[in-house]
């Protein structure tokens, strides 16, 4: 909106003002009644002035203490809760004059007055508020008004324009390297810039002041999308899909809940939406802080810095609630918070690129060293070719010997690596992958040599209760002890013990019939039952037992390795159903009978 200002150069108005609020029982009075109320029903206040829900009457006693007529401006800070603001003054005689308020694009409205020398005039304002609100009133000289308005517009332009510039930088960087995090930050900073614009007065209501339904209309949309973009950035920054699937799923659910809030927000009142928006800010910050702390425990490089950044943002949000209210916003506090948060998020991104650069340089250095080593070996080979035939043969023999040693070492290393790939890191037993390969090989050998093949499926009874009661560290120690007991009962080199998954183990026993497999399973069951699982930190002793299921292949027709495991697994569940801590054998013929 365009506005015209009366400016008196080099002449400051000697104007003082006092503010009063009409008693609540007279709130519904008309302007004619208000003009005639005695001073006793008014109570003097200092600004900022607190307003109640509904209609509020304010009075400003303005005194020109100078010797000349003075121009001055009354400036009103419009908050979202203000439904309407009207300004009245006495006209000629007993008439009442409505003084128009000029609305500016920075949450300010102003009215121009001229006051004679040595005169005190009373001006009345009626303010209709939706819920409790706070209003800022200031009486300024023309020069003070222009300086204040210019400074406010300058700061507002720098704050909003700078945030949009930051978003544009993210977009340019995305165009340069195609990083997904950059396009997410472009969206996030754009939403932040729009949110700051709305809070600083550049909103739909400022464009359409005749439509009070537009007050705060954008806040639910911007607040929800801001939280969604920040959650999305967090998932990409730490690659939660692979690193922490449970946390990633929680953040996805929160994002969908924020989207579901958007249509609901159109049915809620302004004050309700303001409270929900601030709750979204606080709750989303708390959730991200919790995610950050979980990642700190996993020694993620940027987790601690990320947690501190979100914690600072949460502190600013709580300060706004404590110092203002659930319904208001501090312009200065929000501007500082938005900019500080934007710079810190950008700093996190720069640290991520720094670490990526270090990793790339380290890989390049290793590649260069490897290339130099290869080049050095080639140079040595050229030198050998230039020597005499006898020296060449001698050197070739030496190099051949060294190469054989190196190949042997490489073969040993590959064998060790292959063995590690087949071992379970926690228990030292073979893993599921080795189990599948070994079972298939032994099954074929058994069928070829006409020898029996038994497998034992072992499950620790009620092991979930151990994890829930004593923690996963204690559960892991129990698994290690049971793995040691399994190794102790497998005395033949051909017998294989595997960790099938979780608290379940499998034994592959070549050339072992039902009785032999049962004996080994019983020995293991008794060993576990007699073993004291003692926690070193608390001294607590845990009593554990195992249930075992056995099946034996003796060249039955139409039987596969998978069938052998299925029958043993059924035997295991039979042992569980019969009370646990026992060994049960199932014949493979039972499976054939079920299939028929």
TrEMBL record:
Source organism, top-level taxon: Bacteria
EC number: 2.7.7.65
UniProt cofactor(s): Mg(2+)
Bilayer-spanning residue ranges: 154-175, 182-205, 217-238, 250-269, 275-296, 303-329, 335-354
One annotated GO molecular function: diguanylate cyclase activity
All copies of domain GGDEF, residue ranges: 451-588
GO CC annotations, alphabetized: plasma membrane
Protein name: diguanylate cyclase
Organism in which the protein naturally occurs: Thalassotalea piscium
